[in-house]
Write the structure tokens for this entry.
Amino acid sequence: MSHLSRTLPVKRAAHVYLVQDGKLLLVEERMDDGSIFYGLPGGKAHPGETLGDAAVRQVLVETGLTVTDLVFLSLLEGELLTGTRNECYANFGRFTATFSGELNPTDPEVVGIRWVPFEEVEMLVRYGPPPEIEERNPLIWVPTRDFVKGQPRAYYPI
């Protein structure tokens, strides 16, 4: 008999598409295996924190930029990394925003920041092992691919 339900930890995160002159701001982070990962600025929400507040906090730490006037763009929702130690139920919000300030990351995991032309964004995406790394799951990048093509959707079931 199969289990009708099971409890998964919930992971909530928010990321922001910051755009300037046809370029998207990406942060460079060093992964545990030493490789460089390019991702959107943003990250995990604290317990009780809204996705919008998490976006503002994380972007400031990762880039030094202050974001205002967040506009909700997309929600990714569903089971992620099933069968790995990081299995979770994901609620990931994507926003656009107005930004100000100077690039000055204070997050020690951020090793660089780049304004990347829209047409080059997908070339920086790395998929593959280790499988428990959510950022390397192709499903996480589908909304960004759609965004740079000018075709974002409001909802992405994972």
About this structure: The longest strand covers residues 66-80.
